[in-house]
């Protein structure tokens, strides 16, 4: 198991059509006193059913990139394609989970999960069946009729994940969904997410500040540079699934984690200059 992690070039040619193609993406913001470049010449191909983790220093454009893929923001130039079609706005094929749970406090857990299904035209019976199915997936079946205020942070995030999965998106976009949780809850949700991803086989784009989390989850880890954000390197995580918390003790895991950490820290130092 000796040797460094394999470096991959963005948008590597392949016979399989990418699920998501990010091409020459640039995003600028007008601020008082000038222009801020959030993203500059970002390029990446994400394959169907692939799990991509994204790391980089604060302010490097990770969330901006996710928002553009989600259709919540528009690029200044360049494009994002989904199945060969340019993304121009939100769509039912993409689900988003944010760090803040964004649950409706006046709705019960099961009603929160049913909400997106109702918008998509599912019947009342279909909504209830799917909501119950995904509540069982995230081990919250006994809390179906509880309100968000009665749940812990980890339980709220499980509801948010169940809500995103219930509408059956082809792509799941996750912006530091476990960032505010304690270590034990975070570890459990990592394992829950991996099990669900292996069952559902969605395409996942997962942003995190935690290098260890990026490696335990991702098939590839994208390292973004200090602002202006660009995709600096892509590292292949050549550790087989299924993975769990014991994987973090594997020498290969530690080797890859340390390599990525050194590269991310180098970008962090660039921000401090």
Automatic annotation (TrEMBL):
Q: What class of enzyme is it?
A: translocase
Output the SUPFAM superfamilies linked to this UniProt entry.
P-loop containing nucleoside triphosphate hydrolases
Boundaries of every ABC transporter domain copy: 20-251
Alphabetized, the UniProt keywords read: ATP-binding, Nucleotide-binding, Transport
Q: EC number(s) per UniProt?
A: 7.6.2.9
Q: Which Pfam families match?
A: ABC_tran (PF00005)
Which InterPro entries does the annotation name?
Answer: AAA+_ATPase (IPR003593), ABC_transporter-like_ATP-bd (IPR003439), ABC_transporter-like_CS (IPR017871), ABC_transporter_ATP-bind (IPR050166), P-loop_NTPase (IPR027417)
GO function term, MF aspect, one: ATP hydrolysis activity
Q: Which reaction does it catalyse?
A: a quaternary ammonium(out) + ATP + H2O = a quaternary ammonium(in) + ADP + phosphate + H(+)
Q: What's the subunit arrangement here?
A: The complex is composed of two ATP-binding proteins (OpuCA), two transmembrane proteins (OpuCB and OpuCD) and a solute-binding protein (OpuCC).
* Name of the featured protein: Carnitine transport ATP-binding protein OpuCA
The organism named in the record is Paenibacillus dendrobii
Q: What is the lineage of its organism?
A: Bacteria, Bacillati, Bacillota, Bacilli, Bacillales
